[in-house]
Automatic annotation (TrEMBL), chains A, B:
Keywords: Hydrolase
Top-level taxon: Bacteria
One annotated GO molecular function: (S)-2-haloacid dehalogenase activity
Pfam families in the record: Hydrolase
Protein name: (S)-2-haloacid dehalogenase
SUPFAM superfamilies in the cross-refs: HAD-like
Function of the protein: Catalyzes the hydrolytic dehalogenation of small (S)-2-haloalkanoic acids to yield the corresponding (R)-2-hydroxyalkanoic acids.
Annotated family: Belongs to the HAD-like hydrolase superfamily. S-2-haloalkanoic acid dehalogenase family.
Catalysed reactions, as listed in the record: an (S)-2-haloacid + H2O = a (2R)-2-hydroxycarboxylate + a halide anion + H(+)
Enzyme class per UniProt: hydrolase
Enzyme nomenclature, EC number: 3.8.1.2
Source species of the chain: Palleronia pelagia
Amino acid sequence: MSAPAALIFDVFGTCVDWRASVARDVANAIPSVDAFAFADAWRGEYDPAMERIRSGGRGYVPLDDLHRENLDIVLDRFGASCADPDALNHAWERLDPWPDTVAGLTALKAGHIIAPCSNGSIALMTRLAKWGGLPWDCILGAEIARDYKPKAEVYLTSCAALRLTPGEVMMVAAHNGDLHAARAAGLLTAFVPRPTEHGTSQTTDLAADGDWNLVARDFNHLAELLS
Amino acid sequence: MSAPAALIFDVFGTCVDWRASVARDVANAIPSVDAFAFADAWRGEYDPAMERIRSGGRGYVPLDDLHRENLDIVLDRFGASCADPDALNHAWERLDPWPDTVAGLTALKAGHIIAPCSNGSIALMTRLAKWGGLPWDCILGAEIARDYKPKAEVYLTSCAALRLTPGEVMMVAAHNGDLHAARAAGLLTAFVPRPTEHGTSQTTDLAADGDWNLVARDFNHLAELLS
């Protein structure tokens, strides 16, 4: 493998602990519900909402707006109400990084361009970076492609925006499915497990299921492997 | 004036000294020419090249490619040759910040989203930030609008990407023309003079020529005014 010029990252789950962070804000805003169950249900609406856009059934809508629509769906399902759902929707901008994320990204930034390649919008990724101190060089991903991962267009548009070929760019993710799609688009791949993304009884993505270019224990280890 | 949530910046001339930096690389690559005259001529082709795109006579082409085309034009005009014009074109990614730029941006970043709103591409702005240590939160500007300043679309697309209204965003520039266009689009405005951008005999943009929301001596002063 030749050394990548840029590393692009999945964010929800890979860089930040969305579940515990969203549950914290849900617990504050809607004390009557099981906050983790609510967070899981809210996240559960994520993929179906994007699928309508990926399939062409709906034009590009930023994830901020999909989250807001999905919040109404989940409030209804839980029979719950929320004094200020618009404010609660900003929970997705207040997701805490995993303990190694900032140090690992900072080390990787010294030798590489680093950027999110997330389904989150530019606005969402920007505010999330300010919240957690994520030291991105730029924001790539769904919004510049106006489509959603795992469609190849999102990875390819992100590489093109850096004026790099896919073979010069490494996708870093805690989700094997993201890496399968990135590799099919020609990118290098690195897997970093996040075994508690879905809680302590998580059963998915506990280990690499593909022959990825790199498998690292965490972002600090990834920086060591690439140094 | 209400406090801006985000500050977006002109870059060439406002954040970085493109002229001395490009001249340095020209002097190394083409010792036979007057490096400052060559840099001025190269920059002189910038606006006409963008105007074809702004006027609809040509689709969006990133500034990196316009710079490369313009290099051939200027080499021909100077009767000069260059061993590796593609390498010289990367001079635009190696522009030194003004002495106050990094400290001022760092101070401003603590309380605001900061981003370039430049005619440079995402790739160019990303590499320029790494070269000079510009601590942007994200990269906005021409590429996400697929058009060039001073067209309103570039300012408006940059605000929309942050999910902010134009009135929540302040455009910072050393060029009155940029600020006139930004204000016409509804943005707040701040002027910071860069009286040697074009050399010691500069005659343009030495002072504010509009009733801008703020006029600051440099970026550190701007941070004081906004603190």
